[in-house]
Amino acid sequence: MLRRLPADVRRGTTVRRAATIADVAAYAGVSKATVSRFLSGRSDVLSETTWKQIQDAIAALDYRPSQIARSLKGGRTRLIGIVVADVTNPYSVAVLRGAEDECQRAGYMLALCNSGGSHAKEQELLAGLRAYRIEGLILNSAGIAADQVSDALPDGLPIVLLDRKLPPGRFDFVGLNNIAAATEATRHLVGHGFGDIALIAEPITGVSVRTERALGFRQAIAENEGCTGTVIEVDLHQPDAMQQAVARFLATPSSRRKAVIAASGLVTLRTVQAIQSLGLHMPDDVGLVGFDELEWSALVPPGITTIAQPTYDIGVAAVRNLLARLAGHRDEPHSTIFTGTLIERGSSASEAGLRPMAVPAPAQPAAGLV
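Structure for LacI family DNA-binding transcriptional regulator, as requested:
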C-alpha cells in the first residue's frame, strides 16, 4: 500500500529537498535493498506488484537517482571531462566525435564543457569538475598558464592537452604540426602565382596553435624573395570585423596577386562570407586556403582549398593517451603530432595559362610520439 508524500520532499513546482532512495522505499512500503534492485533493472527478483509500487513511488516523489553517487559505490565514476575553448568551432565538433567514440569503446562517458575562450570561465569549469569526480581531463585551453590548470584540479589527475599547448610541457599533448601545415599552405599559394598573402587569425597571443601557424607562414614568406606576407588578427566577436579586415588588405596597392590563408575553420567561414559580401570572386580577386576541411568546402564555388586535419583520429588519440595514464603509465609527458593534408580546389588556382612556380616541398613529419 502506497504511503503519503513526506512533508519536506518536493512536490510539483514547490522545491524543498530532493527525494532519496529511503523516501522511495518508505513511500512504496518496501526496503531500500528492494528499490536498489529495481534501479539496477533486476525485474526477475521482484513481483509485478512490487515493481509497480516502486515505479509509482518514483513518479510521485519525482525521484532522480544520482549516477555519480551510484558510480562512487564502486570507487570509480568512469567519467572523463573535456573542456573546449569554443564548442562552435567546427574543429571542436569533429574532434569530439572521435573522443566520444573512443570513450564508449572503453566504457567511459565524456562530460563536455565549453569555456567560450574565457580564461575566467575555464578556471570555473576546471574547479567545478572536481565535484563530478572525473578520472581524467582533455583540455583545449583558452590559453591560461600550466600552473593555473594544476591549481584548479586535484593532484595526480591525468591531463591531455588538445590542439593548444601550455608551457612548460607538463602534460601530454595531441595536435597538428601547425608550422609545417602553415608552411605548406603558403608555399602552395606562392607556387600558384600569389605574391601578396595575408594570414588571418583570431588574436594570437597566448594561443600556441595560432602562434605556430603564424611562424610557419612567416618562414615560408621569407623563403620567397619578392613575396609579401601580412599577419592580420581579427576579433570575430566584433560585427563586420572580418569584412573590414579583408577589404583593407585588398585595398593595399600591390603588383602581385593577393591571397588569404584563414587560420582556422571558423576564420575560413567568416572569410568566405566577407569575400561574398564584398562582391568578390575567388581566385580572380583573391585566393584562399582555409584551415580545416569543412562539409561545405567543396560546395562554395569554385571550391575552397583547405588544410585538412585528421580530426577524428586526433580525438581518438587524446582519449587513448588519457587511458594509458589511467592504466598507470608514468613516463614523461609526450606529444602525439599529426600531419595536415592540403586538398586543392579552385580558390587557390593559378591564373589562366600561368604555369605554377617550382617551390621546395615542405618536410612531412610522420604522426607519432615526439
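The chain has twelve helices and 13 strands.
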